[in-house]
Amino acid sequence: MCHAEPVIIGVGIDVAEIERFGAALERTPGMAERLFVESELLLPGGERRGVASLAARFAAKEALAKALGAPAGLRWTDAEVYVEASGQPRVRVTGTVAERASVLGVRSWHVSLSHDAGVASAVVVAEG
Ligand SMILES: CC(C)(COP(=O)(O)OP(=O)(O)OC[C@H]1O[C@@H](n2cnc3c(N)ncnc32)[C@H](O)[C@@H]1OP(=O)(O)O)[C@@H](O)C(=O)NCCC(=O)NCCS
User: Fold this and answer.
1) pTM of the full predicted structure?
2) Is the N end or the C end of the chain the one with fewer CB atoms within 10 Å?
3) What are the b/e assignments for 77-90, b being 16+ CB within 10 Å?
4) With a 6 A CB cut-off, is 110 part of the ligand 1 pocket?
């Protein structure tokens, strides 16, 4: 039996100014739905997720795109940040993002989010 050693294929980082991101979401019809899947927009209880947390998820998608070399044609909703029961965020990819990840040999993702002092940030590591 052969087990390939895990390797880091890419890393990405991004920051987003929370107030500016929230203002853009408010004034741009359809922006939230273009960027996020429903499970990202809503908390488990059904209420809307807060803007700092959404800005961090936007940063995670930008960071993920950088980890893949930011090719054209990735669809925002083809990357989803979801949350484990423990509270740890994870990334799930489909469609355009899964295709690019597959070409590069990415098999798993690691994500970390933060929001404080008016800024949301995320780091993503792509592992093969
Ligand atoms: C390339 C891109 C990520 C830059 O992001 P940005 O918010 O405009 O700029 P940031 O300040 O966050 O990042 C700039 C850095 O991105 C890095 N960058 C540029 N092109 C890159 C690429 N192809 N791959 C990885 N990193 C790249 C550079 O290091 C740059 O810094 P530098 O100019 O000092 O070298 C952005 O224009 C982009 O294409 N976003 C992806 C959109 C997307 O695919 N969304 C769906 C994802 S699910």
Assistant:
1) 0.96
2) N
3) bbbbbeeeeeeebe
4) no
